[in-house]
Write a structure and sequence with these properties.
The protein is α/β, with parallel strands linked by helices. 45% of the residues lie in helices and 17% in strands. It has 33 helices and 27 strands. Strands 13-23-24-25-21-26-27 form a seven-stranded mixed sheet, sandwiched between helices. A six-stranded mixed sheet has the order 3-4-2-1-5-6, with helices on both faces. Helix 16 packs antiparallel against helix 17 (416-437).
């Protein structure tokens, strides 16, 4: 495979250096095939390359960007820089093999039986591996001459996005390869196409995106590897985004060539044109062709059973950017664990395929209300019928992972257990189809699933069950997987292999009866092989007619005479090759069965998809019954009314420990307004105030999660829910820095807020928590103030905005769609009790000192904080806020005209305050100025 960019150059230099080194190698070890290097002739240069190492260097030069696993007998060996890299990465011993210019050549190796384990570790560290296998037996190499090297070649390139083995994959997660293609349009705005493939399941999808939505699109797919052209890789504008992506592989431009894309894509699928796949843009075809080209190059002649590419309509799924996915912890927590995520909380699936489909739906909720309704209809059936739900889930537990077993078989990496999985899966599919047929009501999605379940031919399952033994090895090379009695020739070979003593004993008895010599024995040694042994007194009898026609004299020793027979010679040959023949016959059977499975792959894939869909529907129904979830109403309006909403993850954690979860209502629906009023066409914004620890962040997140669950086609944790389809979901919750990019916590907060304000529309749902708290008080208040105005007037979206800037609650009097809400608390003997209830109104305190006390701050700090707070609160903070409201330029035209007032005697105090320069004052000067201001203020009241 050809690399690109810096990797290509580095790989070429490495290969060139290795080739130079190989030319001076002295090796005293033979090749694994048993071929030793020829001895140097007198006067011949003492340093030279051996045939085996010459072969290695040639193969390595063709794969410069990969670690080369070079097969030698029962090991994969690595040499030169590859050995040093692998030994450090894997923690294995670095040894040597020969010398180069007087220096040892580094070498390390891994045993064949543990290769998958080491591959997994290397891939996880970002390495790519070229697997070089022996393509012939060492005996075949020796037939070409004593100096011949066993033929070897790379049979596969192992990369993060092209894995198929169970041991290298997470059964509950897809492993996507994503191809990213770019096009420069006339306006200067870049367009991008994404094509993503999971070769372990055959899924293949394509979509377009603009630059603004690109990060969200990539985050939704969560690929294991991304391929781009070297031009895109080198783009300075895209570099910050691309370098943050995992396993990024630059390739030469020809891989993304749009002129040849359709031809390459059609060739991969063996069709004349891609017209039957649907309508694709040139850019989408370029991305799709790049993906299949990369698959072809890495699989080297093997084509996984990919489905034809499916084009995703723009806006078909809820757009959720990477920051929001992280903040909401949809599929993993901020620490990277699955446990504690929304996915872990709702996953009740019983199959690996079902778990993957559930994760897909959670990552890409729908925006089509009708399609969402179809998914919910399927849940209705299982939620209402406990018997059907139980029966289906019991049958599903017996269904193996059909798609991944099929993929391994088609690309030649399958084993006997994969064949058995296909057979078991076909049987399970038929049983599930029969159970669905017994349902009184079968909505569209379940009817389609039942049709897919019936597609595979039951004869394939019957043949597999007839052919395969009950106990199966993991690898086909181990043999022993064909059932006894299935193949007569195989049974005979096994008998010779496993029962040679019994066969020889039976022949000995027959020969003794034939000759009348009871002492006749059939023996074996390394010189003669099997022979008939009689005493000297019986030797003449066997050499005389008529027995001499059967027994052929071989050897006479003191007291013994040895013979052979044509039958014994043939039997000896059979015994000697019985093990090889038995394995060869089993492998023939495997190949025949695998070919039959591969031919039926379209039907098997349909059944596999149907099993996954059934698993998700029945699992979400089981969750709904278990946790008392309700079916949401999802339509094309702008409603967002949640009655008694609960956080699905927090609720489970609390109830597991015996604690209750306090449910809360939320209504972001457009307010009731006269016809034609603009306010009726935009959702509400709730401004949520209240102390820390009271549950503001939980309340914000739970409503976002309820929207995600509803649009993925799930029941939701609420008493009632009416949601107008959300097209974009944004979340700015929590604090985190990004030091790798030079971003402070506040900068990260501002970057994420900017993305929201620039992209959110009226169908978006936005949740913002503590905007502006990462900077100085007045700076932060100003930013939060301007942000909420922008959300109200420009974005016009549904939003939840939590803040400790209580001054902002006065905005509700001026912004018609802004609604104040607060978290209820009670004070008891100086402590605060959190009730976790959301009610209308505004908080006048944040109770930060009480929370600090709960956290365990020293008593002296708490007391000092109370004193400082009392001094600060002595100042009137309400009037300045109201004045600020009235002075907003945005509302200058509607500001009430003030009545004529007499000069306020406190103006002099304000003027004195304005004249102060805090940055130039010492703490003592500031304290004295504060007392002076208080004295002047007191004087104005007399």
């Amino acid at each position: 495979m050809t690399g690109a960019g810096p990797d290509k150059t580095a790989g070429f230099l490495l290969a060139s250096a290795a080739m130079d080194a190989a030319r001076t190698i002295i090796s005293e070890e033979p090749d694994a095939g048993g071929t030793a290097p020829a001895a140097a002739a007198p006067g011949e240069d003492a340093v030279r390359v051996t045939p085996m190492m010459e072969q290695y260097i040639e193969i390595k030069a063709a794969n410069p960007d990969c670690l080369l696993f070079y097969r030698m007998g029962d090991f994969y060996e690595l040499f030169f820089d590859d050995a040093e890299v692998a030994s450090r990465a894997l923690g294995i011993m670095l040894t040597k093999r020969g010398k180069h210019l007087g220096r040892d050549i580094p070498m390390c190796g891994v045993p064949i039986e543990r290769a998958d384990e080491y591959l997994h570790r290397l891939i996880a560290l970002g390495h790519r591996v070229a697997v070089c296998e022996q393509l012939e037996d060492p005996a075949q190499a020796r037939k070409r001459g004593a100096k011949s090297v066993v033929r070897r070649d790379v049979v596969r390139l192992v990369t993060p996005g092209t894995l198929t083995e169970d041991s290298l994959l997470d059964a509950k997660r897809n492993n996507y390869l994503l191809a990213l293609a770019r096009s420069r349009v006339s306006s200067g705005e870049d367009r991008f196409a994404l094509a993503w493939i999971d070769i372990s399941t055959g899924e293949f999808q394509v979509a377009e995106s603009d630059r603004a939505a690109l990060a969200a699109a990539v985050a939704r797919v969560e690929p294991g590897e991304i391929i781009v052209s070297d031009a895109v890789y080198a783009d300075a504008e895209l570099a910050p985004f691309l370098r943050a992506l995992p396993a990024l592989t630059p390739l030469t431009r020809d891989v993304f060539d749009g002129a040849t894309a359709e031809r390459r894509l059609a060739s991969f699928f063996g069709v004349a044109t891609t017209a039957s796949f649907g309508t694709f843009s040139r850019l989408e075809l370029a991305a799709a062709a790049a993906a299949v080209t990369y698959v072809e190059r890495t699989q080297i002649g093997k084509r996984p059973p990919l489905s034809v590419p499916v084009r995703e309509r723009a806006g078909a799924t809820l757009a959720i950017d990477q920051a929001t996915r992280g903040n909401l912890e949809l599929v993993r927590t901020l620490s990277g664990e699955r446990r504690g995520s929304l996915l872990a909380a709702i996953d009740r699936t019983v199959t690996a395929a079902g778990s993957r489909l559930l994760a897909q739906r959670l990552a890409a909720p729908l925006t089509d209300a009708a399609e969402i309704a179809h998914r919910l209809d399927a849940l209705d059936v299982f939620a209402a019928d406990a018997a059907a739900r139980g029966d289906v889930r019991t049958l599903l537990k017996a269904a193996p992972d059909l798609m991944r077993a099929l993929a391994r078989i088609v690309v030649g990496r399958g084993g006997p257990r994969d064949l058995a999985a296909i057979g078991d899966g076909i049987v399970a599919a038929a049983e599930l189809a029969a159970r669905l047929g017994a349902l009184a009501q079968v909505p569209r999605d379940l009817a389609q699933a039942a049709e897919g379940l019936r597609r595979p031919d039951a004869a394939i399952a019957a043949e597999l069950r007839r052919a395969l033994a009950d106990e199966l090895p993991a690898l086909r090379r181990d043999g022993g997987f064909v059932r006894a009695g299935y193949d007569g020739a195989l049974d005979e070979a096994r008998a010779l292999r496993d029962e040679s003593r019994r066969v020889i004993a039976a022949l000995q008895i027959r020969y003794a009866e034939l000759t009348g010599i009871r002492a006749l024995k059939v023996k074996h040694n390394n010189v003669l092989g099997y022979f008939v042994d009689v005493s000297a007194q019986h030797g003449d009898k066997l050499m005389a007619a008529p027995l001499n026609a059967t027994f052929i004299h071989r050897q006479t020793t003191a007291g013994q005479v040895r013979f052979t027979t044509t039958e014994l010679g043939a039997l000896e040959a059979k015994i000697a090759t019985a093990a090889e023949r038995a394995l060869a016959l089993e492998l023939e059977t495997f190949d025949r069965l695998a070919a039959a499975v591969a031919a039926a792959s379209p039907a098997i894939k349909e059944a596999a998809n149907a099993i996954a869909q059934l698993d998700v529907a029945s699992a979400l129904a089981a969750l709904a019954v278990e946790r008392d979830y309700v079916r949401p109403v999802v339509d094309d309006g702008l409603a967002f009314a949640i009655g008694g909403g609960r956080h699905p993850v927090v609720e489970q954690a609390l109830t597991a420990n015996g604690g209750p979860f306090v449910a809360n209502d939320c209504d972001l629906s457009p307010p009731s307004s006269p016809a034609g009023d603009a306010a009726a066409h935009a959702g509400r914004i709730w401004l949520v105030t209240g102390p820390n620890m009271a549950g503001k962040s939980t309340f914000l997140r739970q409503n976002a999660l309820i929207a995600v669950l509803a649009q993925m086609g799930s029941y939701v944790p609420a008493r009632a829910a009416h949601i107008g389809v959300v097209d974009r979901l944004f979340s700015r919750v929590g604090a985190a820095d990004d030091l790798a990019r030079g971003h402070s916590t506040f900068m990260v907060e501002m970057v994420e807020t900017a993305a929201i304000l620039n992209q959110a529309g009226e169908r978006a749902l936005v949740i913002l928590d503590e905007i502006g708290r990462g900077t100085a008080t007045y700076d932060g208040l100003s930013i939060a103030w301007a942000t909420i105005e922008h959300l109200h007037e420009a974005n016009r979206c549904r939003a939840l905005f939590a803040t400790h800037f209580h001054e902002m609650t006065a905005l509700a009097a001026k912004l018609p769609r802004l609604h104040n809400a607060t978290m209820r608390v009670k004070e008891w003997h100086g402590d605060v009790v959190f009730l976790h209830e959301v009610v209308a109104g505004a908080a006048d305190r944040s109770y930060g000192i009480q929370v600090a006390k709960l956290a365990g701050l020293p008593a002296s700090v708490i007391e000092r904080a109370k004193v400082v707070l009392a001094q600060i609160e002595a100042e009137d903070r309400v009037s300045p806020a109201r004045a600020l409201i009235d002075d907003l330029p945005l509302f200058a035209a509607t500001r009430a005209v003030p009545e004529p007032q007499r000069p306020d005697p406190r103006d002099s105090v304000i003027a004195a305050l304005a004249a102060l320069h805090p940055d130039e004052m010492s703490p003592r000067d500031a304290l004295e100025a504060l007392y002076a201001l208080k004295t002047r203020l007191a004087a104005t009241k007399t």
